[in-house]
Design brief:
The protein is mostly helical. The protein contains four helices and no strands. This is YrdB family protein.
Protein backbone atom coordinates (compact mmCIF):
# COMPACT_ATOMS: atom_id res chain seq x y z
CA UNK A 1 0.00 0.00 0.00
CA UNK A 2 1.40 3.36 -1.05
CA UNK A 3 0.56 6.96 -0.26
CA UNK A 4 -1.19 7.18 -3.62
CA UNK A 5 -3.41 4.22 -2.68
CA UNK A 6 -4.51 6.10 0.44
CA UNK A 7 -5.06 9.22 -1.66
CA UNK A 8 -7.02 7.18 -4.20
CA UNK A 9 -9.30 5.90 -1.44
CA UNK A 10 -10.09 9.44 -0.32
CA UNK A 11 -10.66 10.53 -3.94
CA UNK A 12 -13.09 7.65 -4.41
CA UNK A 13 -14.99 8.46 -1.21
CA UNK A 14 -15.22 12.14 -2.12
CA UNK A 15 -16.36 11.19 -5.63
CA UNK A 16 -19.22 9.15 -4.17
CA UNK A 17 -20.07 12.08 -1.90
CA UNK A 18 -20.21 14.52 -4.79
CA UNK A 19 -22.36 12.15 -6.84
CA UNK A 20 -24.69 11.69 -3.87
CA UNK A 21 -24.95 15.44 -3.33
CA UNK A 22 -25.73 15.97 -7.00
CA UNK A 23 -28.36 13.21 -6.88
CA UNK A 24 -29.95 14.74 -3.78
CA UNK A 25 -30.52 17.98 -5.64
CA UNK A 26 -32.31 16.25 -8.55
CA UNK A 27 -35.49 15.37 -6.66
CA UNK A 28 -38.24 17.88 -5.86
CA UNK A 29 -39.42 15.98 -2.76
CA UNK A 30 -37.80 13.95 0.02
CA UNK A 31 -38.90 10.52 -1.30
CA UNK A 32 -37.62 11.31 -4.80
CA UNK A 33 -34.37 12.70 -3.42
CA UNK A 34 -33.80 9.51 -1.46
CA UNK A 35 -34.54 7.41 -4.54
CA UNK A 36 -32.08 9.46 -6.64
CA UNK A 37 -29.34 9.13 -4.01
CA UNK A 38 -29.85 5.39 -3.55
CA UNK A 39 -29.84 4.78 -7.30
CA UNK A 40 -26.85 6.97 -8.20
CA UNK A 41 -24.66 6.09 -5.22
CA UNK A 42 -25.71 2.45 -5.31
CA UNK A 43 -24.87 2.15 -9.00
CA UNK A 44 -21.52 3.88 -8.54
CA UNK A 45 -20.51 1.68 -5.60
CA UNK A 46 -21.70 -1.52 -7.29
CA UNK A 47 -19.87 -0.75 -10.53
CA UNK A 48 -16.72 0.31 -8.66
CA UNK A 49 -16.67 -2.80 -6.49
CA UNK A 50 -17.36 -5.07 -9.45
CA UNK A 51 -14.82 -3.66 -11.89
CA UNK A 52 -12.57 -0.84 -10.60
CA UNK A 53 -11.63 -1.74 -7.02
CA UNK A 54 -8.16 -3.19 -6.36
CA UNK A 55 -9.80 -6.54 -5.49
CA UNK A 56 -12.67 -6.25 -7.96
CA UNK A 57 -15.05 -9.13 -8.55
CA UNK A 58 -14.32 -9.12 -12.29
CA UNK A 59 -10.83 -8.63 -13.70
CA UNK A 60 -11.65 -6.73 -16.89
CA UNK A 61 -9.15 -3.89 -17.43
CA UNK A 62 -11.23 -2.12 -20.08
CA UNK A 63 -14.30 -2.20 -17.85
CA UNK A 64 -12.22 -0.91 -14.93
CA UNK A 65 -11.11 2.09 -16.97
CA UNK A 66 -14.66 2.71 -18.20
CA UNK A 67 -16.05 2.63 -14.66
CA UNK A 68 -13.31 4.96 -13.41
CA UNK A 69 -14.08 7.40 -16.21
CA UNK A 70 -17.81 7.17 -15.46
CA UNK A 71 -17.59 7.54 -11.67
CA UNK A 72 -14.63 9.90 -11.35
CA UNK A 73 -15.60 11.87 -14.45
CA UNK A 74 -19.15 12.11 -13.16
CA UNK A 75 -17.86 13.43 -9.86
CA UNK A 76 -15.83 16.08 -11.68
CA UNK A 77 -18.94 17.11 -13.60
CA UNK A 78 -20.91 17.15 -10.33
CA UNK A 79 -18.14 19.29 -8.84
CA UNK A 80 -18.57 21.87 -11.58
CA UNK A 81 -22.33 21.87 -11.01
CA UNK A 82 -22.11 22.11 -7.20
CA UNK A 83 -18.87 23.84 -6.22
CA UNK A 84 -17.32 27.23 -6.85
CA UNK A 85 -15.24 27.09 -10.03
CA UNK A 86 -11.83 27.16 -8.34
CA UNK A 87 -12.77 24.22 -6.09
CA UNK A 88 -14.18 22.29 -9.04
CA UNK A 89 -10.97 22.85 -11.01
CA UNK A 90 -8.92 21.77 -7.99
CA UNK A 91 -11.04 18.63 -7.70
CA UNK A 92 -10.61 17.86 -11.41
CA UNK A 93 -6.82 18.27 -11.20
CA UNK A 94 -6.68 16.08 -8.08
CA UNK A 95 -8.73 13.33 -9.74
CA UNK A 96 -6.63 13.37 -12.92
CA UNK A 97 -3.31 13.47 -11.04
CA UNK A 98 -4.25 10.68 -8.65
CA UNK A 99 -5.58 8.47 -11.43
CA UNK A 100 -2.55 9.11 -13.65
CA UNK A 101 -0.20 8.16 -10.80
CA UNK A 102 -1.97 4.81 -10.50
CA UNK A 103 -0.97 3.96 -14.07
CA UNK A 104 2.41 5.71 -14.43
CA UNK A 105 5.17 6.86 -12.17
CA UNK A 106 6.60 5.44 -8.97
CA UNK A 107 3.21 4.32 -7.59
CA UNK A 108 1.95 2.48 -10.68
CA UNK A 109 0.25 -0.85 -10.10
Amino acid sequence: MTANDVGAFFVEVLAIGLLGTWAWQRGPSLPLRLIWVVLVVGAAITLWGSFAAPKATFDLPAAAVAVKVLVLGGSVLAGFLLLPTRYAITWAVLVVANTALQYAGPWAR
